[in-house]
Amino acid sequence: MMVTFMRYCAMLLMMLLLAGCGVTDSAPRGDSAHGERIFREGLNDAPPCMTCHQTAANATGFSLGPNLAGVAERAATRIDGMTADDYLRQSILDPHRYLVPGYRSIMYPQYATVFNDQDVLDIIAFLRTL
What we know:
130 residues, single chain, 6 helices
């Protein structure tokens, strides 16, 4: 019983030390400004996303792809059990896997070969601002 108590105290002490030493989430973060540049200008000869997608909530007129205003909220509900970020990542890298009803499978299929992981995180960060 004493050994169990000492292990508990050691574990508690370790947690307190880690909490106080500035340990933070080290997950990579997206740069929304860079993501916006990719969205508007393209990258590595790939077409810019804005070629087919509008981003204004009050946008009117024809668009080849869905309007992306508020996309982060909708993305969280598109596929059961998939987070918004995972859905957005899949939509960029494997765009033909899930199609939004009413749209055709015409999205540029090579983004997975021209964007690196950070580029995708950056685009997602930008999409979350819409």
